[in-house]
Amino acid sequence: MSIEMDSLRASKAKLRKMIMGSLKQLNQEQIQRQSYSIQQRLLSLPEYQAANKISVYLSMPSGEVSTRCIVEDALRKGKQVFVPYLYKEASKDGRAVPAVMDMVSISSETDYNCLPVDKWGIPTPDPASISTRVRSLSGNSESAGSENLDMIVIPGVAFDRDRRRLGHGKGFYDFFLHRYHEYLKLQTFGEATVENLQAPFLGKKFGFLFGRRHKLIEFCLPVGLALKEQLLPDDQAVPTTPTDWKLDALVVGDGSFYCKAT
User: Fold this and answer.
1) Can you tell me the mean pLDDT for 99-107?
2) How many secondary structure helices (H) and strands (E) does the chain include?
3) Which of 95, 116, 243, 246 is deepest in the core (most CB within 10 A)?
4) 68-76 and 28-44 are packed helices; what angle lies between their axes, rounded to 10 degrees?
5) Is the pLDDT of residue 60 over 80?
6) How far apart are the first and last CA of the chain?
7) pLDDT score of 220
8) To which H or E segment does residue 1 belong?
9) How high is the pLDDT of residue 147?
10) Which among 150, 180, 185, 165 is positioned nearest to 55, based on CA atoms?
């Protein structure tokens, strides 16, 4: 099993390096042109139009689909918008704890435009402001959890036509989706455990539990955005493990659209 996992990790790393090399060849005009096409398609989806709460990744300055217009449109239409926030749980035994992701609210375009940027140039909520924001998991207000996320817009490095996704290798989105599923299960059935909601990302620990949804839970719609250079050819697939969540829909910069069969 260890040899198999090592081989899979090597395959992911090789694919990640290849796609990121291709992305470096794109200029901003090419990225913006594809981003506009993707934005228009996403905004026209009935699921987006009906959504009340939407989580959207905030894009890097280059190398991926821009989400600025999506965030601005959602705010102007009165949707509650959530964005990623990385933090570390307090360690009980003094050992280093890996960062995990939650989604926190932004209140307005002014709030969005005033977010400080991190070392990658990504707008990121100031840690000092988190206590004033609604959090999708660790609710700190009366409204937290009263209405669940309807859609989560997710980035990636590579995608295939069966909606598999390769991220940057940290597991932030896969673990968030798992934790959010457990959170909804707790709300619905009281079955989630504190450990499943708060433990750091450990693929071996969660194993097959990842990526499997309870059929009675109304889960958010995970949607990926991909430049055409990030979409693998028909005969290729993103290597995955049971910890990798499959998207429900994928919008691509060449106008193609892939979605889960209903």
Assistant:
1) 94
2) 8, 9
3) 243
4) 30
5) yes
6) 35
7) 81
8) none
9) 59
10) 150
Specify the residue for token string 């990225």: 31
How far apart are the C-alpha atoms of 219 and 163, rounded to whole Å? Answer: 17
What are the DSSP calls for 77-137, one per residue? Answer: TT-EEEEEEEE-PPPSSS-----EEEEEEE-SHHHHHTPPB-TTS-B---GGGGGGS-BSS
- Say if residues 196 and 202 touch (Cβ distance below 8 Å): no
Based on its alpha-carbon atoms, the radius of gyration of the chain, rounded to whole angstroms, reads: 18
CA 249: distance to chain centroid? 12
User: What's CA 50's distance to the chain center, in Å?
Assistant: 20
Do residues 89 and 100 touch, judged by C-beta distance below 8 A? Answer: yes
Residue type, 97: V
Q: Is 14 exposed, middle or buried (0-12, 13-18, 19+ CB in 10 A)?
A: exposed
The pLDDT tens digits for 169-215 are 999 999 999 888 888 877 777 654 444 444 433 333 333 233 445 54
- Six-digit token pair at 135? 């959090």
